[in-house]
Amino acid sequence: MGGPEFVVILILAFLLIGPERLPEVLAKARHYIREVRKMADGARDQLREQMGPEFDDIDWKAYDPRQYDPRRIVREALMEPDEADTRTTGAPGDEDDLADDGPRYRPPAVFDPARPVPFDSDAT
Fold first, then answer.
1. What tens digit of pLDDT does each residue of 30-79 get?
2. How far apart are CA 56 and CA 39, in angstroms?
3. Helix axis angle, 22-51 relative to 3-17, nearest 10°?
4. pLDDT digits (tens, 9 = 90+) for 89-108
5. DSSP state of 119
6. Spatial separation of the C-alpha atoms in residues 81 and 104, rounded to whole Å
7. Left (φ > 0), alpha (ψ -120 to 50) or beta: where does 28 sit?
8. Fewest beta carbons within 10 Å, which of 9, 47, 101, 120?
């Protein structure tokens, strides 16, 4: 939230709440913010106490949800072979003992205009 947004919120608060009640509302908001910070600090201290020295070794930035790109995660999940696929020794498409072990990794099909497009009458 930048400066202009903060100014707009203050003006709206002043208009909606009124100048008489504004100091009281701001004091309550400040009290609630302090309480939430106390609870967060207490939870962090409790977690540190329960985890012991491993707590300091955790890279908390790795768990920041703002760094994740859902499109990249889905793309990587679809393009990487499964664990069962890495156990095969042959080339993709070769049949061996692990045929009943589950789906195998198949590289994405390349569109060839000379070949007919697959059609599933049950799916349409």
1. 999 999 999 999 998 998 888 888 888 888 788 888 888 888 888 888 87
2. 20
3. 130
4. 444 554 444 455 555 666 66
5. -
6. 8
7. alpha
8. 120
Give the integer Cα–Cα distance in Å for 14 and 8: 10
- Residue 31, both tokens: 């009290």
Residue appearing with tokens 């910070």? 37
Tokens of 98: 């692990």
Asked whether the CA dihedral 58, 59, 65, 68 is positive or negative, the reply is negative
Alpha-carbon 71 to chain mean position: 11
Report the C-alpha dihedral over residues 31, 34, 38, 43, rounded to 10 degrees: 100
Q: Which two tokens stand for residue 103?
A: 């789906």
The residue length of the chain stands at: 124
Stated pTM of the model? 0.41
Here the tokens at position 27 are: 């004091």
